Amino acid sequence: MEIKGIHHVSAITKYAQENHDFYTNVLGMRLVKKTVNQDDPSMYHLFYADAEGSAGTDFTFFEIPMLGNTYEGTNSISTTTLRVPDDEAIDFWQERLHSEELEVDPVTERFGRRMLFFRDPEGQRLGLVSDENNEGVAPGVRWESSDIPVSKAIQGLGPVYFTVPHLEPTAQVLTETLGFKQLDNESNIYRFQAGKGGTGGEIHVIADASLPKERPGQGSVHHAAFRVKDREELEQWVERVQDAGLINSGLVDRHYFQSLYFREPNHILIELATDGPGFDVDEPMDSLGEALSLPPFLENRREEIEENLKPIRQHKN
């Protein structure tokens, strides 16, 4: 049993169309699945990823139109980072994001890597991390976008940031329950590694008791998911999480992968998810995300569901 790295991050948007336009047009990611929240099919669930929808590259969004603002703070997944091929790509993205008039911080270095932090139009906290000298979890397959060179394209999820008031309870779950290795720290940012490590296998935990507790809303993150091999191994993880005394969902079949959800002591929602079967289980790889996909148990409600969803205009990259 081993966590292989980051599987996906699921965030919240108020505007599915604008969200789609930003993540496909500006960031050049591929929409690999257009579906609905399986627990509330009245809302979209959009999946952006690499060219093949690989585990470890998925950044997903639930659309909640009536959402309020996020009041940032602790007990949160506070930043999602995305991997780019090298240091030169960071410079390319700095110029591109500035041209979009986004809120962009100066290029910085953290744990020996060049990073660029910025926000999307809804205030979603994002970062780009260079894979220049990266070793560890392999990147995804870059998607060829119309105006982004493949040599600069996003190639997966980088370190996910947790912000907590106290490090110890979260560190205990990461290391003792999930098997992460605690590495080093820079000031109050602590680095944890799973699997082969590297940018695709790290969690960075910011410990800051001076902040208020976050009130999530538009532009916040719902949960982070980590990769496990298959359903058989996930069933073992269910037992381990239960033995650790963590309230959990038990095994949940999400059609594209199987999942287990639980909250760690600082109230951050964590998911363990299998690598497969993958997004091409119900549509061809070359047309992923073009039509509305529904899991089998919702298929008999397709007409009703489609009537309640506002169509999303898509473009071909």
TrEMBL record:
InterPro entries, per the entry: Extradiol_RC_dioxygenase, Glyas_Bleomycin-R_OHBP_Dase, Glyas_Fos-R_dOase_dom, VOC_core
Single GO molecular function: dioxygenase activity
Superkingdom of this protein's organism: Bacteria
Statement: the UniProt record of this protein carries the keyword Lipoprotein: no
A Pfam short name: Glyoxalase
UniProt keyword annotations, A-Z: Dioxygenase, Oxidoreductase
Domain VOC stretches: 5-131, 156-275
Name under which the protein is recorded: Glyoxalase
The species this protein was found in: Salimicrobium jeotgali
